[in-house]
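Tokens in:
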């Protein structure tokens, strides 16, 4: 898959997710945080249902290796249960705009976790890009005030959980992004909603339930599918840097839809963010590396040397997903930490 499509998907994912925080703030007047977390992720499962049904992919992930089952379980627990609950708890203590800005800590958590534990390599230019994104987040935060200590701690825990989720999800192979989102939404959504009802029975209206599910379909369902597709091609850290533009989309939407002015420090932050992302994708490296024999499933095309298998069926799109095998291969080329390049660097 070329780089342009996963970059675009990550940005669309950020725009969808960026709209969820202010909407969730309003819905917390009608739901307990754990109830809303459950509805949002059940909405995510509903949102990807058409993709699952079209490809007849509704089945238990029993065919996955133990490693991939562990990745999937970790992604469900961290990203589907822990993170949204702590985010929504933080929303109870601070404004939606403040919490949106605190969510930039997800980028920091993803970059540090990737470097320390997941072989998501970044060179000097890449770290400069990370620093630029962090500085841009600080600039955006200027003038917004400081969220309460309680909110900051809660959202920080959510960001660490989502950072783990980002890397675990990017490493899953054998299922499509839609399947991964469906499993996460169904399992995490059901658990959170059931616990929420047991703890505090809901008396909200049917209309609010439909609104919550709809937000989940777009901001957590379609958004997650786009993000996973991007992360499997670009690596979790690079995709997360693109995804961290969600607060900027909020500023732009406010200007276009609500007529709010973009103040000078926000303009500077926007330019810095763009420059940082450009620097990030200049950070490629090349060295001799070996690919082991592997069989898995993910989105790919045949315009590079990793996918040389033949197709018995006629393909309508150059970008497709199916189960395929790779033979042992050693070569050197410029590459990103995608699903094929998670090796150690000397």
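Residues out:
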């Amino acid at each position: 898959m070329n780089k342009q499509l996963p970059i675009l998907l990550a940005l669309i994912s950020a725009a969808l997710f960026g709209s969820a925080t202010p909407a969730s703030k309003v819905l917390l007047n009608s739901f307990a945080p754990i109830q809303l977390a459950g509805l949002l992720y059940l909405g995510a499962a509903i949102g990807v249902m058409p993709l699952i049904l079209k490809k007849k992919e509704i089945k238990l992930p029993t065919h996955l290796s133990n490693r991939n089952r562990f990745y999937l379980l970790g992604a469900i627990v961290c990203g589907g249960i822990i993170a949204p609950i702590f985010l929504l708890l933080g929303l109870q203590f601070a404004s939606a705009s403040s919490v949106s800005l605190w969510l930039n800590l997800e980028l920091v958590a993803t970059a540090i976790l990737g470097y320390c534990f997941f072989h998501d390599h970044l060179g000097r230019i890449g770290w400069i890009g990370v620093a630029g994104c962090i500085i841009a987040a600080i600039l955006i935060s200027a003038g917004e005030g400081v969220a309460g200590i309680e909110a900051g701690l809660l959202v920080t825990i959510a960001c660490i959980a989502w950072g783990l989720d980002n890397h675990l999800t990017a490493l899953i192979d054998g299922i499509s992004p839609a399947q991964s989102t469906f499993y996460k939404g169904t399992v995490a959504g059901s658990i959170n909603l059931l616990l929420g009802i047991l703890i505090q029975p809901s008396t909200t209206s049917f209309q609010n339930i439909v609104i919550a599910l709809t937000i989940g379909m777009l901001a957590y369902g379609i958004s997650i599918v786009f993000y996973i597709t991007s992360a499997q091609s670009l690596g979790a850290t690079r995709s997360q840097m693109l995804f961290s533009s969600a607060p900027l989309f909020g500023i732009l939407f406010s200007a276009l839809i609500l007529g709010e002015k973009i103040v000078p420090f926000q303009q500077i932050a926007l330019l810095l963010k763009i420059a940082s992302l450009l620097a990030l994708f200049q950070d490629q490296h090349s060295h001799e590396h070996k690919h082991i024999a592997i069989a898995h499933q993910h989105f790919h095309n045949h315009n590079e040397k990793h996918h040389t298998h033949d197709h018995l069926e006629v393909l309508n799109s150059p970008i497709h997903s199916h189960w395929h095998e790779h033979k042992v291969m050693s070569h050197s080329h410029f590459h990103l930490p995608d699903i094929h390049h998670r090796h150690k660097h000397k």
